[in-house]
Amino acid sequence: MRPRLLDRVPPRLRPAVLRLGFNFYPSYRATGGRVIHVSADLRTIRVVLRHSWRTVNPAGALFGGALYAAADPMFAMLLALQLGDGVVVWDKAGRIRYRRPGRSHLYADFHVDAATVEAVRRELAERGEAERSFHVALRDRHGQVHVELEKTVYCATKAHYRTKLARAAD
């Protein structure tokens, strides 16, 4: 899941390349979401979902699919960036809870802290796989929560993942 292009980019340019990559990648672009900030340490991503004719439902509120899709890949990507090439990272599950209709632009801040990354690394070393759940809220410019999302991310060492696939094929 980790974009290999980033390995060829100087570290100081990686946040900008990641931001542009998301914003121009066709399937993410179609969500209506835009990445507006990536931190220098690649641990935080800020997204805006604009309220526009492309993202609203017939009632004039932000479409639920757009709300989920704009947030969908972020935690898995942040974790994959921190864990490196030797790890397979997948979104395993997601849950969305609508609090109020989105009738304006909504913003979300996705963050994976160092303690979480280290705990996942320890679990990968011990068991070969790990799962983590992350939470994020989509808020309007006044900070009012409109949507709460929970994402479960699965991680496994490549060796463990290949073994698991081989067992499943038998």
What is the overall silhouette? globular
Runs with pLDDT <50, length 5+? none
Q: Largest sheet at a glance?
A: 3 strands, antiparallel
Assign a percent range to the helix content: 25-40%
Task: Report the CATH superfamily.
Answer: Hotdog Thioesterase
Across the major sheet, the strand order is 1-2-4
The CATH first-level class comes to Alpha Beta
CATH architecture: Roll
Kindly estimate the percentage of residues that lie in beta strands according to DSSP.
25-35%
| Quantity of strands, as a count | 6
User: Order of SSEs, N→C?
Assistant: HHEEHHEEHEEH
- Span from first to last CA? 26 Å
Average pLDDT, rounded to a whole number, is: 94
Question: Helix count, per DSSP?
Answer: 6
Rg over C-alpha atoms, rounded to the nearest angstrom: 17 Å
Count of all domains: 1
Task: Find the CATH topology.
Answer: Thiol Ester Dehydrase, Chain A
- Alpha-beta content class: alpha+beta
Structure, explained:
It holds the Pfam family DUF4442. This is DUF4442 domain-containing protein. This protein has a single domain, classed as Hotdog Thioesterase (Thiol Ester Dehydrase, Chain A). The strands form 2 sheets. The protein has a 3-stranded antiparallel beta sheet. A hairpin with a 5-residue loop joins strand 5 and strand 6. The longest helix is centred in the C-terminal third of the chain and has 14 residues. The mean pLDDT is 94. It contains 6 helices and 6 strands, in the order ααββααββαββα. 35% of the residues lie in helices and 32% in strands. It is of the alpha+beta class and 170 residues long.
